[in-house]
């Protein structure tokens, strides 16, 4: 009697199909949180905003820090900023840092609050919400 027969029925093709389905399901569809270094996130926002204040462009911090701030990209001049540490939150992968910004370019709003979403893994990224 062959191992591929069970009660006179060939089970080889079904065994192969079952193994393929099992292997296909082993990848998992859950997303795993990337590690967050909160101190690195805070110091990176500080460094980026100081660079903006001194007249640098987002590309000047690349590849160390990736920044996507529309106000900075549009050429707004950052006069001053204050990081509001008591208003920050974390989602486990990103630190949400609220910042009070004052612009000195006579644009629409001289002052604004924004929340920067900062990731530190696999690279440092800073984007406003």
Description:
The protein has 3 helices and 7 strands. It is of the alpha+beta class. It has a 5-stranded mixed β-sheet, covered by helices on one side. Strands 1-2 form a two-stranded antiparallel sheet.
Keywords summarizing the entry:
single chain, 129 residues, alpha+beta, 5-stranded mixed β-sheet, 3 helices, 26% helix, globular
Could you provide a short overview of the structure?
The chain is an alpha+beta fold and 129 residues long.
Topology:
Blueprint: E1 5-6, E2 9-10, H1 12-24, H2 38-53, E3 65-67, H3 70-73, E4 78-90, E5 94-103, E6 111-119, E7 124-128
Percent range for β-strand residues = 25-35%
- Structure annotation, total helices: 3
pLDDT < 50 runs, ≥5 residues: 19-24
Distance between the termini: 67 Å
The total number of structural domains is: 1
Number of strands: 7
Instruction: Calculate Rg over CA atoms.
Output: 26 Å
> What structural category do the secondary elements indicate?
alpha+beta
Sheet with the most strands, sense and barrel status: 5 strands, mixed
Q: Which sequence of strands runs across the widest sheet?
A: 3-7-6-5-4
Q: How do the helices and strands follow one another from N- to C-terminus?
A: EEHHEHEEEE
Overall pLDDT confidence: 84
- Helical proportion? 25-40%
């Amino acid at each position: 009697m062959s191992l591929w027969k069970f009660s006179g029925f060939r089970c080889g093709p079904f065994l192969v199909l079952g193994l393929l389905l099992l292997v296909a399901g082993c990848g998992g569809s859950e997303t795993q949180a990337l590690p967050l270094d909160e101190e690195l996130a805070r110091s990176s926002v500080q460094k980026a905003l100081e660079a903006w204040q001194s007249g640098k462009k987002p590309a000047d911090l690349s590849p160390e820090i990736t920044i996507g701030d529309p106000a900075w990209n549009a050429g707004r001049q950052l006069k001053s900023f204050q990081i509001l540490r008591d208003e920050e939150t974390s989602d486990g992968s990103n630190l949400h840092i609220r910042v009070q910004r004052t612009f000195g370019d006579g644009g629409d709003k001289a002052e604004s609050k924004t929340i920067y979403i900062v990731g530190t893994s696999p690279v440092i990224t800073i984007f406003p919400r």
